[in-house]
């Protein structure tokens, strides 16, 4: 069975999840942290995932990921998410040349390891692929061999990945498609079942 290294880009929590309107800055920061930690923990629980490489410039936050069992590297490219992911994938190649890189967004607090494993098991070896978000326009996961790794996260990223030659992963994959940008998204993720870090914070909120 092919094994994967999941590359998770994480903004410093103070700058993440700005669209969670109506919450204090402290709570928004704490939720951004919790989303990322729950996402990483679900990845580590997936049988198809051999390594999780977190990309973050926040040293204290990196230490929390290390405690889970992740490896962290700084965001070495200031020109945007996609170049930073590509650079991190090359670092993954240096460390784990036999693994296949997967870029995964860090705002999937309801992610279940079973959904991630189902998506990974359906991949065609050597073929770029992506998982569209629940709206069908964005992307939550992108994968390709190291030599072809060229993510296109951003507006209409699902279409960008498709026209770039990536295969759209089919299947329900409910928790893998449920990213969280605003409070409506958070309510939908809560209905699916949140990871423990996020659930602890959301339990007291009047959502």
Word description of this protein:
β1, α1 and β2 form a beta-alpha-beta unit. The protein is α/β, with parallel strands linked by helices and 207 residues long. It is globular, with a radius of gyration of 16 Å. A seven-stranded mixed β-sheet has the order 3-2-1-4-6-5-7, with helices on both faces. It is built from eight helices and seven strands. α1 runs parallel beside α2 and α1 packs antiparallel against α8.
Rg calculated over all Cα atoms: 16 Å
Strand content: 15-25%
Identify the strand order in the major beta sheet: 3-2-1-4-6-5-7
Number of strands: 7
Helix content: 40-55%
Question: What order do the helices and strands come in, and which of them pair?
Answer:
Layout: E1 4-9, H1 25-45, E2 49-55, H2 59-68, E3 71-73, H3 81-95, E4 100-104, H4 113-121, E5 129-132, E6 139-143, H5 157-163, E7 167-168, H6 174-177, H7 183-192, H8 196-202
Parallel strand pairs: 1-2, 1-4, 2-3, 5-7
Antiparallel strand pairs: 4-6, 5-6
Overview in brief:
The protein has 207 residues and is of the alpha/beta class. The protein contains 8 helices and 7 strands; from the N terminus they run βαβαβαβαββαβααα. The mean pLDDT is 94.
